[in-house]
Design brief:
alpha/beta; 2 domains; Rossmann fold; 15 helices
Amino acid sequence: MWTPGTRLRYENIAVVPAFSAPATTKFSRGRRFNQSLMSGMGVPEAIWPALIGETRLPSRDRATSAGILWAQTSSSKSGPRLTTPRRILLIRPSALGDVFRSVPVAASIARRWPGVPLDWVVQTEFMDAVRAHPAVDRVIPFPRWELTGFWRPMDGWRRTARFLRSLSNGYDLTIDAQGLARSGAMAIFSGARRRVGFADAREFGWLGLNQRVPVPAGLSAVDRMLSLIEGADIPPVPDLTLTVPADAEAGWAEWRSTHLGECSYAAMAPTSRWQSKEWPIKRWMQVADGLLESGKVGKIVVLGGPSEVDRLKNAVENRSDVEILAGQGPLARSMAAVRDASIFLGNDSAMVHAAAGFDIPIVGLFGPTDPVECGPYGRLRDTLRAADVDEGVHYRDRGLGDEVMGRITVEEVMEAALDRLESDGPVQ
């Protein structure tokens, strides 16, 4: 487990210097179609091998004088010391919960190099999560759903190429905190002379890096991020503080005035992308009844995605004391609702990490996922986990249903919620 002030030992890190190359790159006859395709997209020739599936490391005559650097292994025990960069790129497009949990990376960079501009590549629909953070100079929207799929029409390929080319903005340092093929490609296109990421990046994502940092298994997502940047010689700062964009405050204030008045409220996120992570929604309504009867809150605000609105409406059944915010307004409005709540209750989903970022009382419910790795950072005592979870259980097993989560009782959740409300703050 990462601890402040402890240097992470890492191996197999090397930086390959840039070198000149011939003006053109020759491919075998069987690759000429791909060569034409890449050329039509405007992709730099130096990275054609990675994009068309040549997974071996490029030789010297495939590099370019533009400074595109490729990773190679060595027995080096430490990476190079960083001089002050002119501009930094952070790549962490998704998922939303992981974007929230990557905020400490931005905070650490800002502490290490105050005033150095930091840009963040983030999925378009998640921009609100970080665009107002004081450490972030600019967010670069990643239009994932417009670019998804390998066999796309030519205009799709060109859109992809345009997005990748847009990443070149004079970066000296790029940090790939995602660790996938697409983020590795983004790292290459950033043009940064130093590109840092996880040694175990999946889908050959390590090809985009020239400094690969091994990180121990079994860490929480936040500790994994902090270990990565510590391995890059950036002192880690475990600051998860979130900021709601100022331009969203008026919309939130109007919604709150209309639907809540002056009532205190509990924010509740009863849904999840995976059924195996969901506590039965009828039990959530029983908890809502208990909280309202206790007099600790005056209303319940229900959060969720646009695709979940119908389910939530069916569960709420037109109750006047339960308001559905799901599907109404941008992500920033949901963030504001969490920030101002008396307490947050939810499954293992993104908004439990937002609640941790706003440092409000939390009751997080976990079943097949381990709250040590997946729970709100530093808030293990604010979580409940189902009893007797087998070691081999995985949340992606669609046959699980809500059987594991169903082991958590309404009484347990009510007891935990009232305890958090009585303590007037998170349990430390």
